[in-house]
Specification:
- It is a single chain.
- The chain is an alpha/beta fold.
- The protein is 44% helix and 17% strand.
- It folds into 2 domains: 28-144 and 288-361, Response regulator (Rossmann fold, 3-Layer(aba) Sandwich), CATH 3.40.50.2300; 147-272, 3-Layer(aba) Sandwich (Rossmann fold), CATH 3.40.50.2300.
- It has helices at residues 4-25, 41-60, 80-92, 105-118, 146-160, 173-185, 207-215, 228-239, 255-261, 288-302, 307-326, 331-339, and strands spanning 28-34, 69-75, 98-101, 122-124, 139-141, 164-170, 192-199, 220-224, 246-248, 269-272, 344-345, 350-351, 367-372, 375-378.
- The strands form 4 sheets. The chain has a 5-stranded parallel β-sheet, sandwiched between helices.
- The termini are far apart.
- Residues 5-24 have low confidence and may be disordered.
C-alpha cells in the first residue's frame, strides 16, 4: 500500500502538471487602451495597428510558449476619465494578464493608481518622465521622456550658440510636463527662457502668443506639444514672417506633422527615434535591421510609419519576451522579467531596464532631426 508521503508527492505532481497543461492551452490576455480617435488619434491609430498586426503574426507562428494572445482594446479618445473606466474593465471584467497602452501622458497618469493597486504589469506608450520618475513598481514605458527631449534640444542649441528661447506649450499632460522640464533644465545649459506661452487643445490660432514671444527677442522658439497644436504654431510662425530657428518635441515625430505644417515645417528641428530615418542609418547600427523590418511590414499594410507605432512595437515585444523568460503569465514573475530587460533592440532604441530605471533608454537613443525638402534628415 502506498504511504501517505508518496501519495502527497504524487498528488502534488499531478496538480502541477494539470496547472501547467491548463496554462499552456489558455490564452494570454493582453489589455490595451489607446487614443484611436480624437485629438491624439495620430498616436493611438498606429499603435493599435502595430499591436494588431504583430499579435496576429505571433499567433500565426505558434503564439508565446505555445499560448495564443487575445487582445482586448478600448478607445479612450485621449480622455483620462474614459481611460480610468476602461482600465477598471480590463482588470475586473476582462481579467487581463498585463496592459500595454496609454497613448497620452494624461490617460497614463490617470490609471497608474489602478494598475499599482491591482499589481498588474503595465507598459505605457506615453512621453512624460513622471510616468516612471519616481519609479513605480508595476509601471514601465517605451517612449523617450520629455526630459530627454529637452536635454537633446538644449545640447543642439548650445552647438548653435542659442542662449535666449521663447517657449510655447500645449495645456495637456504632455505639454505641461514638457514645459516643466524645459524650465527646470534650461539653467543647466546656460539658456534663458525669455517668454512662456501656452495654448489649449481646441485653439486654432496662436498668433497672439507668438507675437508676444517675438516681442521678447528670443534667438529661437521651442514648442512642446502634440496633435494639431504644433502644426498650427508652425504655420502661424510662417504667416507672421518669423524666421527664428524653431524646435519641436518628439510629440510631433510623424509625417502627419510635416503634412499639416506644409512649407513652414522646413528647417524645424526635433529629437526623434531612429525609426524615422531607418534607411539613412549605417549598416553597423544595431537597430537598423530591426527597425527596417518593422517599417517594411507596417508600411506594406498601413502606409507611412511613425515613431508612435514604434512605441507599440516595443511595448508588445518587451511584454512577450518577459512572458517567455518567466515561462508563465504570473504577474510578479512577468513584472520582474520586464525589469530585467537587457539589450532589447527595439524601435525606440536599445533598452536596458533595472529596478531604478523603468524606461531603459539613454540620450543616445534620440537622433536630432531637421526637416529638409519635406522629409527627415539627421543633423550631423
Amino acid at each position: 500500500m502506498m504511504n501517505n508521503t508518496l501519495k502527497a508527492l504524487l498528488s502534488g505532481m499531478v496538480l502541477l502538471l494539470s496547472c501547467a497543461t491548463a496554462q499552456a492551452g489558455s490564452e494570454i490576455k493582453l489589455g490595451t487602451f489607446l487614443a484611436v480617435t480624437g485629438p491624439a488619434s495620430f498616436l493611438g491609430d498606429p499603435e493599435l495597428k502595430t499591436l494588431q498586426m504583430y499579435v496576429e503574426k505571433i499567433n500565426r507562428e505558434g503564439g508565446v510558449n505555445g499560448r495564443q494572445i487575445k487582445l482586448f482594446h478600448y478607445d479612450t479618445g485621449a480622455n483620462p476619465k474614459k481611460a480610468v473606466n476602461f482600465v477598471k474593465r480590463l482588470i475586473k471584467k476582462d481579467r487581463v494578464d498585463l496592459i500595454v497602452g496609454g497613448s497620452t501622458s494624461g490617460t497614463t497618469m490617470a490609471v497608474i493608481p489602478l494598475v499599482e493597486a491591482a499589481k498588474l504589469p503595465f507598459i505605457s506608450m506615453a512621453g512624460s518622465v513622471k510616468i516612471i520618475d519616481p519609479v513605480k513598481k508595476w509601471v514601465f514605458k517605451t517612449p523617450h521622456t520629455d526630459k530627454m527631449a529637452a536635454q537633446k534640444i538644449f545640447l543642439d542649441m548650445n552647438k548653435r550658440g542659442i542662449k535666449k528661447v521663447g517657449m510655447i506649450s500645449g495645456s495637456g499632460g504632455f505639454g505641461k510636463s514638457g514645459r516643466g522640464q524645459v524650465l527646470a533644465l534650461a539653467p543647466e545649459y546656460g539658456i534663458e527662457i525669455v517668454a512662456d506661452e501656452s495654448y489649449g487643445k481646441k485653439d486654432t490660432d496662436m498668433t497672439a502668443q507668438l507675437s508676444k514671444i517675438r516681442a521678447a527677442n528670443p534667438e529661437a522658439i521651442l514648442n512642446f506639444g502634440f496633435g494639431s497644436g504644433p502644426a498650427i504654431v508652425t504655420k502661424n510662425i510662417g504667416q507672421l514672417g518669423i524666421t527664428l530657428p524653431l524646435y519641436q518635441s518628439h510629440g510631433v515625430a510623424s509625417k502627419k506633422y510635416i503634412e499639416m505644417s506644409g512649407a513652414s515645417a522646413e528647417g524645424v528641428r526635433l529629437p526623434a527615434a531612429s525609426l524615422l530615418v531607418a534607411n539613412k542609418l549605417p549598416d553597423s547600427d544595431p537597430q537598423k535591421k530591426v527597425i527596417l523590418a518593422y517599417k517594411t511590414a507596417y508600411e506594406a499594410q498601413h502606409g507611412a510609419v511613425s515613431t508612435f507605432g514604434g512605441h507599440g512595437y516595443d511595448a508588445l515585444f518587451l511584454a512577450v519576451e518577459a512572458i517567455k523568460r518567466a515561462g508563465s503569465t504570473d504577474k510578479e514573475a512577468v513584472r520582474t522579467e520586464i525589469e530585467k530587460t537587457r539589450n532589447f533592440i527595439g524601435a525606440g532604441g536599445v533598452f536596458n531596464m533595472s529596478p531604478k530605471d523603468h524606461l531603459g533608454l539613454g540620450l543616445d537613443a534620440f537622433k536630432m532631426l531637421e526637416i529638409k525638402n519635406g522629409d527627415w534628415s539627421i543633423v550631423e
